[in-house]
Structures are given as structure tokens and as C-alpha cells.
Amino acid sequence: MINASGLGIGMTSQRTRDRMVNRLREQGIHDPRVLAVMRTTPRHLFVEEALASRAYEDTALPIGFGQTISRPYIVARMSELVLEEHRPGKVLEVGTGSGYQAAILAQLVSRVYTVERIGPLFEKAGRLLHEVGFKNIHFRLSDGAWGWLEEKPFDTIVLTAAPEDVPSELLTQLAPGGRLIAPVGPPGNQHLMVIHKEGGRYRQSVIEPVSFVPLRPGLES
Ligand code: SAH
Known about the structure:
Elements: H1 11-26, H2 32-40, E1 61-64, E2 67-69, H3 72-83, E3 90-94, H4 100-106, E4 111-116, H5 119-132, E5 137-141, E6 154-159, H6 168-172, E7 174-184, E8 190-198, E9 201-210
Parallel strand pairs: 3-4, 3-6, 4-5, 6-7
Antiparallel strand pairs: 1-2, 7-8, 8-9
The structure holds S-adenosyl-L-homocysteine.
């Protein structure tokens, strides 16, 4: 899936990625599909060059515009939740950022639709993921709180920025039996939640405390 030729992916990166995956296992990530794609995906391409040597540490890193690429543990945990019940076909991600989470998901599900509100991040991630060779990721510059109406319904919706309350429009774009996975709450008091759509009802479970950048309204260039 990933065309790594010419992108400077050396042995050192493979060894550091192996160490990252061992650490993810110690942190409780068990899904072999998630561990396998995180072992082979060159995370250092998704951060600024000056930070490339820190790309495999278990930490969030700045990607510009006050935004961050989530720490590897969180990317792995959310991906595991995406696959938990069944392998979804269509996934909507709100908050493309660096494109790393989209790149991981695109290797685990059929199609990824990803939405970003900051113009330069949207362009950079689109360019990189195209260069690396992904054909099943669709990009849109938009306020993700409105979802992606033309492509609904989605089997799974993943938010990588935290709303204080889940936007109701996103719930309506879930397929029956679908799930929304999101950090919810104000800065300093957020929890990762899974909301299941069952018939006309929603069932909510709290996974664990997390720390994400806030979901913001409108576009930013
Ligand atoms: N998934 C990203 C995480 C980036 S941080 C990665 O792997 O790098 C969260 C991103 O959500 C930021 O880029 C931020 O600009 C974006 N975001 C915040 N509010 C948004 C909204 N309403 N619609 C779309 N994107 C949003």
C-alpha cells in the first residue's frame, strides 16, 4: 500500500518503529492489524523535518497552526476501537491534521473520508498522502462538525479534535449500527467516548481520559 521508495525511509526508522510497536504492546494495544500498520507506516514523514528524530516517541508533536499530531498510543487506541466490532467500510475522520491517522485507517478499512478546517494543513496532508500512494483517502476542506453530507452514511466517524458536545449532525450521518469515536469535553477534562447508533437510539461508553486540541468552528486559511 505504501510506496516508500525515494522518501528516505532507512533502517534506523524501521528499528525505531519496532521499538514504538513494542511500547504500544506494553501499553495494552493488542490488535495485530493495528500493530502491523504502525510498524510499517513512516510516521516521521508526517512531522516537520526538524522533529523527525522525535517522530516515534510517545508524544504529541506540533504540526503548525497550534495543532498537534496525536501520540502513537492514541492513534493506535482509536484505530483499535474502529476495528473492534467489525471492519468498517466507510470511515469519516474529522481533523486531518498531519494525515497520519488517516494513513493508518486507510490501511485498515475500505475508504477514508477526512475533513480539515485549516487550509495549509489540508493541502500538505493531501499532497503527502498522494505522494505516498494512497488511493482510498478522500479529502475535504470544511468544518467537520457538518460531516460530509454527500457521502453519508458512514460506518464509523472518528473525531481527532474534541467538541464539548458531540455535533448532532454527525450522529445523523452514521449508518444504522454505526459508531462515533470521539474525545469529548473541555480542555483538561476530556474523555474518549464511543457512541453506538442502535435503531433510533444512541448508547454511549466512556473509554479513558484523553487530551486533544479543541474542535473549532468555521474555516481558517
Ligand atoms: N488526525 C490528526 C490529528 C490532528 S489535530 C493527525 O493524525 O495528525 C486535530 C485537527 O483537527 C487539527 O488539524 C485541527 O485543525 C482540526 N480541526 C479542529 N476543528 C475542526 C473542524 N471543525 N473541522 C475539521 N477539522 C478540525
